[in-house]
Specification:
With 490 residues, the chain is mainly α. It has 19 helices and two strands. β1 and β2 form a beta hairpin. It starts with a helix and ends with a helix.
Length: 490
C-alpha cells in the first residue's frame, strides 16, 4: 500500500473527531453514526496496512536533518496498532450506550475519536522526535476525557494526571535529546544506536536512559508516579477502560520498549546498574500494585491498582533485556489489554445499570446480571493466569524468561510474579464470589428481576470474553509475531 495511507490512518480520526461537533445538530444518531463510520474506517485501514506489511516511511515535516516528523510501520508498531485497532471499535460501541444519558456527549466523542488517531501516531512513529510529539499530544487529547464529568474529583484527577504527565515528559525529553544531541536522531533501529559503544561517559549515558525509562514510565504507572492512575478512575468507564488497558498506559510501555531495544540498545545497557535499577523498580511496582488492589474496596480503583501491577509485569519483561523477556512483555501487553478492558467494561456495566461501585454492594448481583459477571469471571481467570486463558500464556513466558536470565534479581521478580498471581486471584475472585455466592442473608432482594445492560454493552463484553479464551487456546500466531519482533525480524 502507498505510504500516504499511514498519514490517512492517523488523520482520519484526528480530523474526523475535530469535525464531529458539526454533526451535533443532527442529533445523537448522526453523531454516533459518524463516529462509528470513522472508527470502522480507521480500523479497517490500519489492519490493511498491518496485513500488507508495508515498511515504507512518510515524512510529514522536516525541521532539521535530525528532527523530522516521519511515519513508518515496523513489526513493533504493527503489533501495538493491531491491539488498538481491534479494541477501539468495541469500546466505541460500548461507549455509545454508556454515554447516551451523559451531558456534553459530542465533546466527549470528539476527544475520544481524536485520541484514536494520536495513539496510532505513537504506534507509527519512525523516530524518537515523532514518537515524543505524538506522546505529548496523547496527554492533551485525554485530559479533557478524564475531567469530562466536571465534578471536583474529576477536575482534581485531571490536574494530577496532567501534572505527572508533564514531569514524565520533561524526563523523557531530556533522555531523547541526549541521543539526538549526540547524532542519533535517525529512524529506530533494532539493537539501538549505541550497540557499537558510546564514546562519552558510560555512567552518564546510563543515567539518561534511566531518566527516559522513568519519564515514559509515568504513563505506564511506574511507582511512585502511579498516583494518577487510580484517581483517573473517576472518568467515565469507556475512558478508564482505554486509559488503563489500551491507549495511554500501553503507549507508555511501548515508548519504554522503543527506548530500550530500538534507541539505546540492550548491548549498551545489559548487565549495568541501570538495568538493575529499572528491574528492581518494576518488581517493586508489581508487589505494590497487587497489594493495594487487595485492600481497595472501590471496584474501579481496585482494577486501577491491578493495572499498576500488570503494567510492571511488562516492564519487568523489558528490563530483562533479552529476546525471551521482550517476547513475554509483548505477549502480556496484548493479553492484558483484552483482559483489563473487559474487566472495566463489566464494572462500568454494573455502575451504568445499578449505580453500584463498591464491592460491598455487589452481593448476589450475579443472578441479576449473569452475562456481565460471567464475562468478569473470564477476565478474572485470565488475569490470574489460569489455563487455557490468554493470561496464562504471557505469565508463563515471563516466568521462563526470568529463569533463563541467570540473574538473581530476575529470579526475585519471578517469585514476586507468582505471589502477585495469588493476590490477583484474591482481588478478582472476591468480586466473582460476592456476585454469585453471597454470604447467607447478604443478598440484596430489592434489586429488580432483570438488570442486565443492553446489547451495545453485552456484545463487546461477550466478544472480548470469547477472544480471551481463543487467544489462549490458539496463542501461537501471536507468540510467533512477538518472537519475530524480539529477534529483530518482525
Amino acid at each position: 500500500m502507498d505510504e500516504r495511507f499511514l498519514l490517512l490512518a492517523v488523520l482520519l480520526p484526528l480530523l474526523g473527531g475535530a469535525l464531529l461537533p458539526l454533526t451535533h445538530k443532527g442529533g445523537p444518531k448522526v453523531v454516533y453514526g459518524t463516529m462509528y463510520a470513522i472508527t470502522a474506517a480507521t480500523s479497517f485501514l490500519t489492519w490493511a496496512l498491518i496485513i500488507t506489511g508495508n515498511t515504507a516511511s512518510y515524512t510529514l515535516v522536516k525541521l532539521t536533518k535530525e528532527l523530522t516528523l516521519t511515519l513508518r510501520f515496523d513489526g513493533l508498531g504493527r503489533f501495538f496498532a493491531g491491539i488498538v485497532a481491534t479494541l477501539w471499535p468495541l469500546t466505541v460501541l460500548y461507549a455509545s450506550e454508556y454515554m447516551k444519558h451523559e451531558p456534553r456527549q459530542t465533546a466527549f466523542f470528539c476527544f475520544f475519536t481524536m485520541t484514536y488517531g494520536v495513539t496510532l501516531g505513537v504506534a507509527m512513529s519512525a523516530n524518537l522526535f515523532t514518537m515524543y510529539a505524538f506522546y505529548e499530544l496523547l496527554t492533551l487529547a485525554t485530559v479533557p476525557l478524564v475531567m469530562h464529568p466536571m465534578t471536583r474529583r474529576a477536575v482534581r484527577a485531571a490536574k494530577t494526571y496532567f501534572s505527572f504527565s508533564l514531569g514524565g515528559a520533561a524526563l523523557a525529553f531530556t533522555s531523547i535529546m541526549f541521543l539526538i544531541g549526540n547524532g542519533y536522531g535517525e529512524s529506530f533501529r533494532f539493537g539501538g544506536f549505541l550497540e557499537g559503544g558510546f564514546e562519552g561517559s558510560r555512567n552518564l549515558m546510563l543515567a539518561f536512559y534511566v531518566m527516559g525509562f522513568l519519564g515514559f514510565g509515568v504513563k505506564a504507572a511506574l511507582f511512585p508516579a502511579h498516583v494518577w492512575l487510580p484517581k483517573a478512575s473517576v472518568a467515565p468507564t469507556p475512558v478508564t477502560a482505554l486509559l488503563h488497558a489500551v491507549a495511554v498506559v500501553k503507549s507508555g510501555v511501548f515508548a519504554v520498549i522503543r527506548l530500550t531495544f530500538f534507541a539505546y540498545g540492550t548491548g549498551a545497557l545489559a548487565g549495568s546498574w541501570a538495568q538493575n535499577a529499572v528491574m528492581a523498580l518494576s518488581i517493586f511496582t508489581i508487589f505494590f500494585g497487587a497489594t493495594k488492589a487487595v485492600k481497595e474496596q472501590h471496584w474501579k480503583r481496585r482494577l486501577a491498582y491491578s493495572t499498576v501491577a500488570n503494567l510492571s509485569y511488562i516492564l519487568f519483561g523489558v528490563s530483562m533485556m533479552t529476546q525471551a523477556g521482550l517476547t513475554a512483555g509483548l505477549l502480556h501487553m496484548a493479553f492484558h489489554a483484552e483482559t483489563k478492558i473487559l474487566a472495566f467494561f463489566c464494572a462500568g456495566a454494573v455502575l451504568h445499570s445499578t449505580g453500584r461501585e463498591y464491592l460491598s454492594q455487589l452481593n448476589g448481583l450475579g443472578k441479576k446480571m449473569p452475562i456481565t459477571f460471567g464475562c468478569f469471571a473470564v477476565s478474572a481467570l485470565a488475569l490470574t493466569g489460569i489455563p487455557p486463558f490468554s493470561g496464562f500464556v504471557s505469565k508463563w513466558h515471563l516466568l521462563t524468561a526470568a529463569a533463563d536470565t541467570q540473574n538473581g534479581l530476575a529470579y526475585l521478580g519471578a517469585g514476586v510474579l507468582l505471589f502477585g498471581a495469588l493476590l490477583t486471584a484474591m482481588y478478582m475472585f472476591t468480586v466473582v464470589c460476592r456476585a454469585f455466592f453471597p454470604c447467607a442473608g447478604s443478598e440484596d432482594e430489592k434489586l429488580p428481576a432483570e438488570r442486565e445492560v443492553s446489547w451495545r454493552m453485552t456484545v463487546p463484553m461477550t466478544i472480548l470474553a470469547a477472544g480471551i479464551l481463543l487467544t489462549g487456546l490458539f496463542a501461537q500466531p501471536i507468540v510467533n509475531a512477538a518472537l519475530a519482533i524480539a529477534r529483530g525480524i518482525g
